[in-house]
Amino acid sequence: GPFLDEQACSSFIGRWNIPIKHCCTLGELALYFTATKISRLHIDIIKVQHYNRTQTALHDFFFTPSSPAIQNIQTALFYPGTGLLEGINIDEGRGTLKPFQQCGAPWINAKELQQLLQQKNLPGLSVTATSYTARAGQYANKTCYGVELHISNEKEFMAVQTGIVLLQCIQQLYPQHIAERLYTTNANPTGKGHLNKLLGINNAFQLLQTGQPVVTDIKEEWTGKINAFLLYSL
């Protein structure tokens, strides 16, 4: 979670009311959308043989890069959470060897941020202080100070919760520096409200500034909605 607010946040990034990390195959989502959104559609799904959705060990995957910035399974596992960094003025490591696994800005105290994140005891995560040269974006060719994230236990790691807590920690430490980022794309030419679209919550940056909680534990509600459309056992 959270679920996406269709009235306020529907976009090319996310259109319908599902969690950020839905844990479904494309076939399962297609069945769900056919039942809930596109009733006129007739669809047949060819199931994958020998697929086990509980097979999560990093070394079990042959990974095909899904974008220039997501070249390995570790980055893909981080992206649902650290992709939220695109909504604020923090470098997310694009162009470096560890995109979405490290982040920073010239005005961050790396050790300070590391210590605060460690105090949050996020499951399946270890954190180290780091510095690197940003290769693109708002801090291109500048030294950024921040943190490098490592998955210590992929079965316990909670990507979205980690990303939200990371944003909250940066806001807590550097309220005078943090700002909403205009992230211009073909789907959003003005770049405004990008964090809303990423998180699926309206006024997301204002919620971050005021320290209001974001509900991510929606497993029970989502399971109740999606369970009938799952093709592979949990």
Distance between the termini: 18 Å
Major β-sheet annotation: 3 strands, antiparallel
Order of helices and strands: HHHEHEEHHHH
The helicity comes to: 25-40%
* Class from secondary-structure proportions: alpha+beta
Specify Rg, calculated over alpha carbons: 18 Å
Helix and strand arrangement:
Layout: H1 6-9, H2 26-36, H3 73-82, E1 102-105, H4 110-119, E2 125-133, E3 143-151, H5 159-173, H6 194-199, H7 204-210, H8 219-226
Antiparallel strand pairs: 1-3, 2-3
Helix pairs in contact: 3-5, 4-5
Summarize the structure in words.
With 234 residues, the protein is α+β, with helices and mostly antiparallel strands. It is built from 8 helices and 3 strands. It has helices at residues 6-9, 26-36, 73-82, 110-119, 159-173, 194-199, 204-210, 219-226, and strands at residues 102-105, 125-133, 143-151. The protein has a 3-stranded antiparallel sheet with strand order 1-3-2. The two termini are 18 Å apart.
What descriptors fit this protein?
globular, alpha+beta, single chain, 3-stranded antiparallel sheet, 9% strand, 234 residues, 8 helices
Question: Can I get a quick summary?
Answer:
The protein has 234 residues and is of the alpha+beta class. It has 8 helices and 3 strands, in the order H-H-H-E-H-E-E-H-H-H-H.
